[in-house]
Each structure stands twice: as C-alpha cells, then as structure tokens.
Amino acid sequence: xxxxxxxxNSFSWLMSALFCTALGLYLCGLLLGKTEFGRRFWHISRxxxxxxxxxxxxxxxxxxxxxxxxxxxxxxxxxxxxxGLYSSMQxxxxxxxxxxxxxxxxxxxxxxxxSVINYFLQQVFEIRWLxxxxxxxxxxxxxxxxxxxxxxxxxxxxxxxxxxEQDASEFIHGTLDAVRGVLNAIVSTIEFTIILWGLSGIxxxxxxxxxxxxxxxxxxxxxxATLLSVAIGRPLIKLNFNKERYQGDYRYSxxxxxxxxxxIAFYSGEAKEQANLQAxxxxxxxxxxxxxxxxxxxxxxxxxxxxxxxxxxxxxxxPRFFTGQLTLGDMHQTVQSFNRLMRALSxxxxxxxxxTLYQARLNRLYGFFTTLDxxxxxxxxxxxxxSKGFYLKNLGVKDQYGHILFAQINxxxxxxxALLIQGDSGSGKTTLLKALAGIYPxxxxxxxxxxCVEQPLFLPQRPYMPQGTLKQAICYPHIQASDTELKxxxxxxxxxxxxxALEQDNDWQVIFSPGELQRVAFVRILLSKPELIFLDxxxxxxxxxxxxxxxxxxxxxxxxxxxxxxGHRCTLQQFHNKMISLSERANxxxxxxxxx
Length: 596
Fold this sequence. Notes:
It is built from 18 helices and 14 strands. By secondary structure, it is an alpha/beta fold. It folds into two domains: 371 residues, ABC transporter transmembrane region fold (Up-down Bundle); 209 residues, 3-Layer(aba) Sandwich (Rossmann fold), CATH 3.40.50. The strands form four sheets. A six-stranded mixed sheet has the order 8-11-12-6-13-14, with helices on one face. The protein has a four-stranded mixed sheet with strand order 3-7-4-5, covered by helices on one side. A hairpin with a 5-residue loop joins strand 4 and strand 5. Helix 1 packs antiparallel against helix 3, helix 3 packs antiparallel against helix 4 and helix 10 runs antiparallel to helix 11. The radius of gyration is 35 Å and the shape is elongated. The chain starts with a helix and ends with a strand.
C-alpha cells in the first residue's frame, strides 16, 4: 500500500462517498415517507425542514455525514496501518516499524480532531432541533387553549409534560444515533467487505472448496444472528412503551401528593396515598420484570455471538497462515476487518433494544401531535357575537356527546349589570359560565351576543399564581401596574401584609391560603379594569364580611363593568341585580334581584 497516494486519495473518496450518501439518504427519505413509520416521523420533524431552516439544516446534515464517512475512512486506514506494523515486526524491518509508528501518530492526531469536531457538530444539530421542536410543541399545546381542551379528549395523551421535556430530547438524540449508525453500518460493510475479499482465499468446509469462503461464511453467520435477535427482542417494543407510561404515571402521582400535602394531612390520608403510590409503583416493577425476562434471552444471545466472533476469523484464516499464504499483519487485519464488518452487519441486531425505545418515543410524540391536530380541526364554538351589551336568546348548551344540558337560556345585560348564577351542586353552573365566557369546548345553539371588549376576565374558584416574584404572580399574565397602584389595590383587598414580599421569588400558589388566593383575584380585577368579569365561586373561601367588602369595592371602582358570578350563598344576591337559577335546566329564566 502506497501511503502517500492513499492519503491523497482519501479526499476524493470522501467527496464521492458524500455525494452518493446524500443522494441515497434523500431517496430513502422519500421511500420512508410512504410507510406508516415514515409518515409519523415526518409529521414530528417537519418543522426543521421548513424554508427558513432548510439551508442551515442541510448544511449541518452534510457535515455530520462527512464526519461519519471520515470515521469509516480512518478505520480502514487503521487496519492497513496495523497490517504494515505487524508485518514489519514479523520481518524484523526496523525502518518499516518506525515508519508505521509515524503513520500511527498522524492517525491519532486526525482521530482527535475528528472526535472534537464531530461532537461539536452533533451537539449543534441536536440543540437547534430541540429548540425548534420544543417551540413547536409549546406553541401547538398553548394555542387555541389546547392545553385546556385536551382534557376533554376521549383518548387523553398521558404525561404531556414528559412528552415535551423528555421524549422530544431523546427522540432527537435517538434519530441522530440511528441515522449515523445505519450510514456507518452500510459504508463499513462495503469497505470492509472489499478488504476481506482481498484477504480471503479458498475456504475448505467438509471437503468442499469455497472461493472467498470467509466472506460468505461471515455474512451467513451475522445475518442468521440478526434474524434470531430480532425475533427474540420483538416483544420489547410494547414493553418499553409501557415502561415510559408507567414511570410517568408514578411520577405524576408523587407530584400530586406534594401539591396536595395539606389536604392529605387534614384527611390523614397517608395510608390511602401510600396504597395508591404502591399500586403505581408495582405497575412499574411488573413491567420492568417483563423487560428483564426478555432481555435475559436477548443479552445472552448477543453475548454468545460476540464471543464466538472474537475467535472465528482466526480459525477461518489459520490454515492459510500456517501454510505461509498470509503474514501476521494479514491475520491482524483480518481480525480487525471481520470485527468491523460484524459490527456493521450486527448494527440492527445490537440496536434493536434501543430502537424499541426510540419507536415508543416516536409513537408517543405522534400521539401528542395528532391529538393537537384533532383539536385544531375541531370547530371552535364561539357563539358570542359583538354587541353593546350581553344578550342571549334561547341559548342551549350540549355536552361532548351532543346531549342538551341547558335550553331556552334568555339573558339581557347592559353596562353596570351584575348576573348571579345559582343552583344545586352539580347542576352545571360552572359549565354555563364557561359557555358564556367562550371557553366551553362543545356545541352551543341559539343567539348569543356580548359587549365588545378586548379581553374579559375569567376568575376560577382557585386563582392561578405562577412561580416568580409576588408582583409578577399578582400581575399575571400581562397586567401593567406601578408599585403604587399595586399596593393600593392590595390594601383594598386586605393583602397589605405582603408589601415586603413583592420582589421575593417563591411558589406563591403553595404559600397563599385559598382565601388569600381569592383576594389576589380581586386585586387583578382592580388593576386590569375589565368591562366584563366572570367569577366562578371566587369568594367561596372568604368569610361573608370580606366577601361583601370585595364585591362593594369592585362595584364602586368599576360601576360600568358587567359582572357574571357563580355562587351558592344567598348573601351574593345583594351584589347582583339579576339572577338565573339552574334548578330547571329545560327552561332557565332570568329573575330580577333586589339590589341593596
């Protein structure tokens, strides 16, 4: 082998191999798109190939392909280096030995440079793809209130937080590993088959002479091992899918205990929670034992194949070595080439366990996106047209199955009116309020109009407080207020004791009591000054004097705002001039209240 010529030819080999590889990858992508697996993959990864990202993505992909080809080329040169080194030692050729030692130094430097650049490019590609995929998942999840509507789906995707945070990252890493592994396997198979073909002679088996028999024997051995490995490991696909789901369920149950610690403590529900957690954990353990039983067979088989492969090439080439047809360097190159060829042909056998995990993540992400696709395609029922007041005529509300929940709802409100919705527990007060606020996900019928306002304010029974400073939490999501305005509103709502904590970063949802959270809701009303306010039992955790104070405060501060409240207490009637009762769902009329 002429090393000077071979090193010069490596560049032309890399360029031609890169062109063929890129073309082959493109054609494989087109064919893959015709399969169910491919359609799911492209459905998840389409964002990275859009026009704004395409040029950078293609450039990075080509560089990564080049890194894979360089790795194979270095491995090929490495086998010839060891052939020459061991042959020089067998011949006691000192000059040749030191020449190959210098070649080794050069190859080591190239390997180091290649390793550093390859790692950097891989991380750049993974991070950029993760940023785009994470942004798309968050945008889709938070758009059109999908995060809220998804809970009404019959097939609710499990552990959405896990899919966004964990599955997305591992899917990207798995994709890169799979593509690089397949490409490395194909190119290595071609290159090392050529090397073994040159090193092979006539193989005698049971009295039969097989030209180039070493190559054929290796291919048959590895292909049979691969088929058996796939057959043994096939059940792992479903088991690994369940593994992620069960672990996510267990983690979510632990979080629920943490978030509801006070209620559990009051109920003394530790034993019940422990039983529930043990049941979730047992599902994790049961699934893990199933995986262990399958992996015993798969790992045992793979280990046996690997051990046989360590001695097999020497046994096949030994007759030719002892007759002087092969040098010690040829034997060493045979072992190296055989192992690289076996690693290449065994890629799918050894990668099968990882591929089952990869396919499980792919299916979970696909389920996430298809659920959001369904929600995006679902007609959004926003029956409230824009008008000067709030007007409903013969409004009906249906459930997810199309059954009528309410009918003949007639309401007419003008600026300054306050409507109270009352009824028995479970009568659907909150459902009606959601329909009036325009966040009910199912069908409504009839005529509905509401005041032309930019953003009505909907306040649930337990107001949400994001993590951050207290000022950020109170002003959620986009209330603009000075410290003076904020403190004035807090004083009116009896939260002045928290002045000192406005710039403190904490989990205020946990720190504040239910009553304090509801007072925060009224602070938000005073700061945002909405023209239309929806209150869903927003004073249920307050004593009646505080409730009266807060209602009087907002009525005085916002005399022209329309207020629609849901509540059980009779004391609420004095703050509303109209009331609707859901005791008779078929005909919900509007009664006037006595305003005091």
